[in-house]
Amino acid sequence: MPAQKLDGKALAATMRGEIATQVQARAAAGKRAPGLAAVLVGEDPASQQYVKNKHKACQDVGFATAAHRLPATTSQAELLALVAQLNADPAVHGILVQLPLPKQIDGEAVIRAVAPAKDVDCFHPENVGLLAAGHPRFYPCTPHGVIQLLTRNGVSLAGKSVVVVGRSNIVGKPLALMLMQKPTAANPAAADATVTVAHTRTSDLAAVCRGADVLVAAAGVPEFLTADMVRPGAVVIDVGTNNVNGRWCGDVHPGVWDVAGWVSPVPGGVGPMTITMLLHNTLAAAQQIDG
Ligand code: GUN
Q1: ipTM exceeding 0.90, yes/no
Q2: Closest Cα to residue 110, out of 130, 88, 84, 132?
Q3: What is the largest CA-CA distance in the chain?
């Protein structure tokens, strides 16, 4: 029997409905709509599509949203000036600077310039530190989306062997932190799992992956995770969004569906959940800033 689908599109729709209800309640109480400012530098087609999707998702739940599109030739000083303006704007609760940035811009300096209270990506070192210490201000969007996709479909993680393939600052590293931590009132998405992080230098990657109850493919390598690397019945999460000759494909080979118990599809799995968690963080930022 083929694997069951972990339907991120359906769960995202449910959770966006929950967020829209909270936005309406805030409006009824006379509060300002949560505001997200998205900044896009240059014309990278994938980044343009991501920002468009985020902008529409914000509109759908009743947020105030502005997309700031700057030319690829923008200087670091110009970008930092825009970030400073957004930091000071009371109508903006969340700031998202779409990565990657053009070569002339020091991305780390830009990440550090975003006010931590408005850092809805959870990329600022202060917020990364709070997450690592188990007292998160925000959860990073893709890792949080992965954990919600699992837990809200009834996949328990406590005590499970979870293998994360990929160690990026955006996905693998923070996801491993969240999975391994003990859940508390301040850290409700923590999962009590036993975590292994695998990467390009891991010896016998297939054997490591076969030890997983839950396998997260976040390497950014099209269809690298093949059926022989998956224990029968395992849960497989595909974080890959690879554009191969104009077609979107994940990190998981289609043959995995014949072996796994559950698989998240691409598209329609983690992608819509990531955007939903961005909405969640922007609402949380508005609650923290405006009350
Ligand atoms: N580029 C790829 N993923 C992300 C993300 O989650 N946030 C931002 N700002 N840029 C990205």
Answers
A1: yes
A2: 84
A3: 58
Active site residues: 54, 98, 121
Q: Which of 287, 286, 280 is CA-nearest to residue 61? A: 280
pTM of the model: 0.97
Q: Which atom of ligand 1 is nearest to the CA of 274?
A: 6
Residues 105 and 171 in one domain: no
Residue nearest to atom 2 of ligand 1 (CA): 99
User: Two tokens at 45?
Assistant: 């087609």
Residue type present at position 212 = A
Written as six digits, the tokens of 164 are: 């994360």
pLDDT tens per residue across span 183-240: 999 999 999 999 999 999 999 999 999 999 999 999 999 999 999 999 999 999 999 9
Q: Where residue 55 sits, what CATH number does that domain have?
A: 3.40.50.10860
Q: Say if 214 falls within a structural domain.
A: yes
Which residue's alpha carbon is nearest to atom 11 within ligand 1?
Answer: 99
